[in-house]
Amino acid sequence: MRKKLLTFFMVAAAVLLCGGLLSACGDDSGDERTRTVIRYYLYDDTTPMTAVVFDGEFSFDMVPRRDHCVFLGLFDAKSGGTKIVDEYGRCNFLIENEMTLWAQWLGNNCSITFDPGEGTMQGERSMSLVYGSTLAQLPVAQREGYEFVGWSSNGRLVSKGSVPNSTTFDDNTYIFNSGTDSVELMACYDAKKFTLTLDYNDNSFKTQEITVSYGEGIDSVDLPEIEDSGSRELVGWSTDMRLNIPFTGTFDSDITLYAIWRDYKLVKFYEDPDSEEYTEQKVYRDE
Questions:
Q1: Do residues 146 and 212 make contact, with C-beta atoms less than 8 angstroms apart?
Q2: Cβ 98 vs Cβ 76: under 8 Å
Q3: What is the DSSP string of 121-176?
Q4: Which of 79, 138, 163, 176 is the most exposed place for a label (fewest CB within 10 A)?
Q5: Average pLDDT for runs of 10 along the chain of length 287
Q6: Are the beta carbons of 91 and 58 closer than 8 angstroms?
Q7: What count of other Cβ atoms lies within 10 Å of the Cβ of residue 271?
Q8: Contacts (Cβ under 8 Å, ≥6 apart) of 279
Q9: Within 10 A of 35 (CB to CB), how many other CB atoms are there?
């Protein structure tokens, strides 16, 4: 009798335990929300992000941010298209189908200032562009005696003349993405080069050419060393082979300068008429 009662209680416990397990471990379809997967590109076109949307409702916990840009929303096209998620990061209708979305951004205004330095330029010296926009042609600056090289930003040359530098710009177009709300471009110049011809003016027909820069003077030129001939010495350079007026101006074109010679003779001076010791001094013929 005791064995029968024990068997009865064991079977009853087993039935109750099995019932509990079935209740806990059975079908987990209690979450009846619909799931939809969307892909979206937030900052570029190469790195997609994935989100699971429950019951068609989607929103960002925080509005996406990007330096110097305003988030316009997620659209069903890279440009234009229909706005699916608004600028506040909220979707105002149910998403029922899988889709791919693209973030669109509006750049802040970027102020560009052109400084011609000691030169001049035509047109406005400042302009406002939308951050990330393009400017295919830059202004031209002018400076007397100098060639306009281009524009520089923070000491780095960013254009060749008015054409953006291909190493800095994409497709010869300046992308204003310097990370600041203002860009100052400084004009860069190189002094024009001229040929200075030195005529020795000594019946030897000997000449020498030297490259000089605009604004340089004769004192800044590395002139050749000409040895004293023993009867005359070089005292300067003139623009006229017949005039002994030294050139003291600056170079602004090709020029020929002629050597100015001063004739002299060496005279012996004895300190004591009875001594053989003497010194030689130059006595110039024009004195």
A1: no
A2: no
A3: ESS-SEEEEETT-EES----EEBTTEEEEEEEETTEE-EETTEEPTTTSBTTBEE-
A4: 79
A5: 45 39 38 84 88 87 86 93 91 87 88 93 87 81 96 86 63 59 89 96 88 94 79 88 90 95 80 76 74
A6: yes
A7: 8
A8: 268, 269, 271
A9: 10
pLDDT at 12: 46
Q: Which residues share a beta bridge with 160?
A: 163
What's the CA gap between 20 and 25, in Å, rounded? 9
Q: Strands 99-107, 35-41: parallel, antiparallel or unpaired by DSSP?
A: parallel
Residues forming beta bridges with residue 10, ordered by sequence position:
none
Question: How many degrees, rounded to 5, is the angle at CA 164 between CA 160 and CA 166?
Answer: 90
CB of 144 closer than 8 Å to CB of 137: no
Q: What is the pLDDT of residue 202?
A: 84
Instruction: State the pLDDT at residue 15.
Output: 35
SS3 for 4?
helix
- pLDDT the model gives residue 196: 97
- Per DSSP, the three-state class of 228 is coil
40: helix, strand or coil: strand
Round to whole Å and give the CA distance between 5 and 14: 14
- Whether residue 167 contacts residue 175, with contact meaning beta carbons closer than 8 Å, is answered with no
With tokens 């669109």, the residue in question is 104
**Which tokens sit at 35?**
């799931």
